[in-house]
Amino acid sequence: MSPAKKRTSVSVRDVSAPAPASAIAKPLTTRRLTQAIAELSERDTRLGAAIAAVGPCTLLPRTEGTHFGHLARNIVYQQLSGSAATTIHGRFLKHVSAHLGVETEHPTPESVLGIDDDALRGCGLSVAKVRAIKDLAQHVIDGRLPLDRLDVMSDQEIIDALVPVRGIGPWTAQMFLMFRLGRPDVLPVLDLGVRKGAQRIYRTRALPDAARLEKIAKTWRPWASVASWYCWRVLDLEDAGGW
């Protein structure tokens, strides 16, 4: 007989316990943005030129509303034009208000699960989006997505908690980190706008793939979110013929 295999235990950190302090970056503030711009400009001359052309960064966390409401809105807005998405989202909030018996712009997981699927479909939501929003609500209620503990979770832990939700992939999770939580060192390597902006700034012949962008971004750390924002904004300047 072959010798019995010895079992080895793998330590997996429980997200109910705080992540190490070193793994949690402080949210961006006006003061920290000033620091980021100064450091990026000093260590990367090409990016510094783009920063000078674009001007001050306005990437501050969006604090209005709730995390759940923000994520639900993101799902509603997916693959829709701005006006259509705004209309459908407004209808969605009216149904939530009717269910709660009070006018509100802040849906709760419980209120969403209490609304009939057909009623949500009547707002203009697709079947897939109804399922996604309800799956989001269920993840929050059963604790798989602990929205009340995000401040003690690392970026990767938050992404790992978000992507199992229907309708939320890595890109949506990264945008949540950047624009909602103000995390300073997020690098959306698959974002076409960031890749095109990096191509413009660094004058690369080909559009950088994920691996190439990771190499370029070594000088961006720990301010990859800010550098990515400038990649987007450089494209605006290019469209206007300004850079």
From TrEMBL:
GO cellular component, one term: cytoplasm
Keyword Metal-binding: no
Keyword Ribonucleoprotein listed: no
Record key words, sorted: DNA damage, DNA repair
Documented EC number(s): 3.2.2.21
SMART domains noted in UniProt: ENDO3c
Protein name (database record): DNA-3-methyladenine glycosylase II
Native species: Gemmatimonas aurantiaca
Organism lineage: Bacteria, Pseudomonadati, Gemmatimonadota, Gemmatimonadia, Gemmatimonadales
